[in-house]
Q: What sequence folds into this?
């Protein structure tokens, strides 16, 4: 049974700690009594991207990027948190001002001019904890294939590891977010929603406050 | 309790469940809100006498972390609108206030977006179907909340529904369309949440909250007029000479110093309280859900309501232990997954309201019909049965569920999940009006921290709607309020009143709150504050 299994030794941010089998790296950090005020958010769902770590497994030469809440402690692992830089307002655009959808594809190069300088180093792909084909998506975006490129970023949690990895400062995660936002805001117009909004504006959807009683 | 292997070997009966106890009796006997000792009457403050979970009452009965002298030399930062908490509600409020012309300071204990919103899976309710209406949404919400919600607030929320979806699309959020529908003019994919009378749940796969939060976060970063301070928890509110809210004292965790954020209007959007682990329950909430906003607002004079009501989501993971409390979306049951007890029987309509389903599961456990696996107790969520009935559904539509199973080390198409209720949502909270204003002048509230929208039980999909609807209402009212006055004589004058109240109620002065981080986070808040007091501004 789990409780009787041998504890696992891990080095985490320079601390030699012991983890119970089956526990995630973030749980191992807390069980070791280490303080946790950053690099933590959803605690296991793998959706917030806060707990970025570099992990080197025993016997391996290369460290891999991962999320500490999703990665189980293994014997001999070396782990360190990858801190977040303060958010910057790079690659700025205003969706509301992009009224002309003919100009939308051109905006990709205006807002993300570095994208065309991709040197195909694969750093972004290697850094993505969700296995997204980041480099392919960036190149599709440069070719104007906005929807196809945006779709590749569908599982992106905006952990920004690809942003840190890119030597050309392309900011792939933000490029992906730009494409996906542009697509929704310029081309998603559900008919049933539009009809209901018109009904509401015409005063044909009133609410009887006294409605049902217990 | 029945052992896992024995229960798994027993044949499963998919016949409709026999009638359970009458709803009210089931809740009274088995819902955690009604357990003996779960509640304590509040002993001071604007809602004295009201019942409140014992763990939360301990924080509401506490003294402040700081006193006047601690902030004497602190740096001051001015804004028109201060927004505390940068999850969904906070980001929506900040965007709305900034676009109305206010200079906004958006502060967060963790990083922007690392809250409960990003974890929401199921979807957002909005009555857009031809077979649906605002009235139906209104009635479903009231009924699910046992008629304890504030009617005017519910009407405001459901009326905002369709506009909220349009607003989200304008920000760049995607939604699923029904099979084969076109992006222009097509119909949206609508699902029926438990307790609703029409298909009203709009979604983006089973990670609607992630899609919403990544759009909101990007919009905030690109909107001029919003300054974001991460790792800056609010540790006390500031008051002006007349007792109105004038901003907050922030603790800069990076530089370890205090900062005064002075603002004409303050929006609290600090979320919920799952990390208090009420009655010892695991939680589906994010790491920072420690009720900080409730503590600060209550000390300042805000009223609380339905504080005795929390939502325990029926399907939290019970095994394996390292994932205990993690949520399995209601989408699985909405798609047709049934639950079995240790005898292989169904025991409740799986799509009854969440409080009823959770109480029914706890009844099975209390009466010995649960299962036990490696010391973890629960009942079964029949994912293999769902997959057999709808081949491919687990991989295609329940992505998060399948991903979780992979991390738990089993195949959900072969093996069912062992589940038990997990502490999920704070149904009540800080009392607000239709503009998001609290009883304290200058203080507004939106999102899970606020109360009155859900009565005693929240419908799936109403949390995401609430945070958009009331984030916009509070953001707009805050920007409006700013133009009227600026705070003067800013300090901590309300604490003297509070301390007198503590003494009068016979409560100790040395218990401190808010807690900021759960105890297992090993954070020495008192030590951080001592360090902050030593650092000159």
A:
């Amino acid at each position: 049974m789990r409780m009787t299994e041998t504890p696992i030794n891990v080095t985490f941010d320079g601390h030699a700690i012991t983890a119970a089998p089956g526990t995630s790296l973030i749980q191992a950090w807390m069980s070791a009594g280490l303080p946790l005020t950053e690099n933590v958010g959803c605690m296991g769902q793998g959706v917030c991207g806060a707990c970025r770590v570099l992990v080197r497994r025993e016997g391996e030469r290369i460290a891999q990027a991962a999320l500490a809440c999703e990665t189980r402690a293994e014997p001999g692992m070396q782990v360190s948190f990858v801190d977040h830089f303060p958010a910057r307002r790079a690659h700025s655009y205003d969706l509301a001002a992009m009224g002309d959808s003919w100009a939308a594809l051109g905006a990709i190069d205006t807002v993300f001019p570095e994208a065309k300088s991709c040197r195909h180093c694969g750093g972004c792909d290697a850094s993505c904890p969700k296995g997204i084909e980041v480099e392919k998506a960036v190149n599709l975006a440069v070719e104007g294939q906005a929807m196809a490129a945006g779709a590749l970023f569908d599982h992106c949690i905006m952990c920004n590891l690809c942003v840190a990895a890119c030597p050309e400062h392309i900011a792939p995660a933000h490029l992906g977010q730009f494409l996906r936002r542009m697509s929704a805001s310029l081309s998603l117009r559900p008919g049933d929603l539009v009809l209901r909004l018109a009904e509401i504006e015409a005063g044909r959807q009133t609410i009887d406050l006294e409605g049902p009683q217990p | 309790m029945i052992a896992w292997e024995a229960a798994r070997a027993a044949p499963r009966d998919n016949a409709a469940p026999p009638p359970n106890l009458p709803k009210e009796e089931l809740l009274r006997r088995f819902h955690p809100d009604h357990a003996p000792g779960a509640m304590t009457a509040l002993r001071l403050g604007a809602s004295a006498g009201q019942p409140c979970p014992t763990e939360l009452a301990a924080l509401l009965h506490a003294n402040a972390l700081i006193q006047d002298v601690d902030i004497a030399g602190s740096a001051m930062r001015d804004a028109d609108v201060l927004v505390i908490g940068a999850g969904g509600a906070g980001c929506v409020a900040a965007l709305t206030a900034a676009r109305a012309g206010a200079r906004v300071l958006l502060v967060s204990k963790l990083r922007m977006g690392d809250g409960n919103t990003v974890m929401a899976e199921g979807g957002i309710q909005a009555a857009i179907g031809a077979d649906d209406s605002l009235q139906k949404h209104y009635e479903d919400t009231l009924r699910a909340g046992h008629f304890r919600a504030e009617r005017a607030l519910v009407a405001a929320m459901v009326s905002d529904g369709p506009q909220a979806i349009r607003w989200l699309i304008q920000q760049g959020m995607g939604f699923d369309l029904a099979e084969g529908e076109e992006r222009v003019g097509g119909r949206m994919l609508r699902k029926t949440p438990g307790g609703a009378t029409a298909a009203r749940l709009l979604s983006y796969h089973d990670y609607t909250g992630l899609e919403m939060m990544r759009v909101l976060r990007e919009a905030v970063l690109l909107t001029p007029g919003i300054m974001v301070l991460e790792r800056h928890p609010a540790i006390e509110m500031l008051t002006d000479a007349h007792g109105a809210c004038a901003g907050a004292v922030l603790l800069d965790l990076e530089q370890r110093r205090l900062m005064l954020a002075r603002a004409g209007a303050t929006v609290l959007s600090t979320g919920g309280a799952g990390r208090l682990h009420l009655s010892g329950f695991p939680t589906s909430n994010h790491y920072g859900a420690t009720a900080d906003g409730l503590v600060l607002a209550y000390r300042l004079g805000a009223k609380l309501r339905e504080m005795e009501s929390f939502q325990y989501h029926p399907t939290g993971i019970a095994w394996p232990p390292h994932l205990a409390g993690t949520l399995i979306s209601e989408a699985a049951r909405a798609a047709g997954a049934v639950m079995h007890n240790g005898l292989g029987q169904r025991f409740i309509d799986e799509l009854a309201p969440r409080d009823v389903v959770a109480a029914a599961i706890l009844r099975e456990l209390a009466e010995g019909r649960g299962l036990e696996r490696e010391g973890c107790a629960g009942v079964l969520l029949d994912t293999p049965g769902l997959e057999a009935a709808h081949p491919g559904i687990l991989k295609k539509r329940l992505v998060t569920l399948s991903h979780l199973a992979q991390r738990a080390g089993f195949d959900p198409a072969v093996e069912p999940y062992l589940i038990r209720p997990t502490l999920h949502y704070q149904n009540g909270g800080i009392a607000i009006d239709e503009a998001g204003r609290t009883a304290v002048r200058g203080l507004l509230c939106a999102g899970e921290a606020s109360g009155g929208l859900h009565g005693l039980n929240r419908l799936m999909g109403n949390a995401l709607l609430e945070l958009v609807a009331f984030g916009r209402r509070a953001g707009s009212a805050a920007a409006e309020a700013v133009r009227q006055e600026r705070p003067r004589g800013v300090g901590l004058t309300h604490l003297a009143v509070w301390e007198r109240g503590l003494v009068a109620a016979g409560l100790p002065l040395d218990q401190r709150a808010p807690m900021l981080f759960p105890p297992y986070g090993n954070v020495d808040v008192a030590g951080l504050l001592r360090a902050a007091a030593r650092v000159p501004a």
